[in-house]
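Design a sequence for this backbone.
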């Protein structure tokens, strides 16, 4: 996403560069070359900033996804959720009763 002010500067520079009267006032062609270089550098910085922002957004999604997976794994790894209890031989553990539901939800992006 291009910065609005940078776009305005580029338009003014383009208009100045096309005016023969301004070219007479400018000290040398180096002036225009310098301005053009600075505009190019600003465009690169803007592109890097946009790419960085996308990477941060992607990283945030991965952090949330990893949290879901961790919570699902903790559920299945918890000894209490896996135990049937000595007094209930026909009982089903929480993990058995869950039948993988928590894992499927984590994979779908649900909590």
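Sequence:
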């Amino acid at each position: 996403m291009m910065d609005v002010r940078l776009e305005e500067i580029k338009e003014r520079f383009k208009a100045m560069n096309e005016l023969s009267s301004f070219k007479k006032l400018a000290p040398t062609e180096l002036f225009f070359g310098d301005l053009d270089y600075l505009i190019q550098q600003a465009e690169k910085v803007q592109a890097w900033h946009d790419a960085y922002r996308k990477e941060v957004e992607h990283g945030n999604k991965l952090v949330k996804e990893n949290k879901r997976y961790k919570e699902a794994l903790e559920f299945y790894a918890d000894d209490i959720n896996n135990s049937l209890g000595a007094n209930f031989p026909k009982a089903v553990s929480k993990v058995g009763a869950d039948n993988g539901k928590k894992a499927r939800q984590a994979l779908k992006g649900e909590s």
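The longest helix spans residues 29-77.
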